[in-house]
Amino acid sequence: MTPETPSYIPPEANQPKEAKSNVTNEALRNKVDKVLGLFCKEFTVDGKENLTQIQEVEPDSKFIVASSHISNLDAPAAIKALGDKLDIQITTESVLRGATPQEVLFRLAGKDQFTSLQYKKTKKGKHGVFNPDDFKLLSEQIEDGKTPWMAIHPFTLEEEMQDPKIGSVYLAHKTGAKIIPTALELEGGSINLEGPLELAKGVAKRAEAIYHVGDIIDLPETDVSIIEEVLEKRKNREKISPEEREQFSQVHQELKKQADQVAKVIAEMLPEDQRGQYS
Length: 279
Hints:
By secondary structure, this protein is α/β, with parallel strands linked by helices. It has helices spanning 26-39, 49-57, 74-82, 101-109, 132-143, 167-175, 196-204, 225-235, 242-267; strands spanning 40-46, 63-67, 87-92, 114-116, 119-122, 125-128, 146-151, 178-187, 207-213. Helices cover 39% and strands 19% of the residues. The model is unreliable at 8-20 (pLDDT under 50).
């Protein structure tokens, strides 16, 4: 972890307390085990004690799981690795279709375990659209004990990190949640598991999987209310003052900087050839 990256260290003065009881329902975790068993001959978790330690000291803490997204196993792997500690809610940028592991899981688990985020289609594929209404719903789910899983960058077939998005850091500031940086490392078989050929490759040669959990990140406090206020005015075609534009720009730039810091932490947990711009 780079020195400037904000990280959370539990206060030594506090005595351990009883950990939170919110966990992902057992039926879903069993289904995830079956899905992952098709593509992984071995699944290990590295760094989970980072989460356990904070939950013991501060059982009321709220979390967001921020993840790289170069495999369709990323979200199911989060449930397998952390589902016994967190009630994970998967965010996705589309109505899932097809036969990828995440899409099969969607049909098995039901839509209540997934929260759709707005997106648009271009010639280059799908791209997320920042919609404050999506984050209002996610904020409510966090208050109800859910822990959103959010990709730090859009899914890609290039099998390497892409430019980070601000969604997870914005939501962290909006709710007071801490960020759990995670990355799924796969060796052998298929990495992206996108499409029939890659799925067949993944089943024929099952991968060795390591789910990395980094140090919990507690971002420096930032008031992000101007983001929602300005976007709401834009939607309603209301006038936006120069002061509001300037404040919006400053906060947006700070969120981009923080998202980049989180992405760097996540990239360091991946193999060199999957780190993209952070290689």
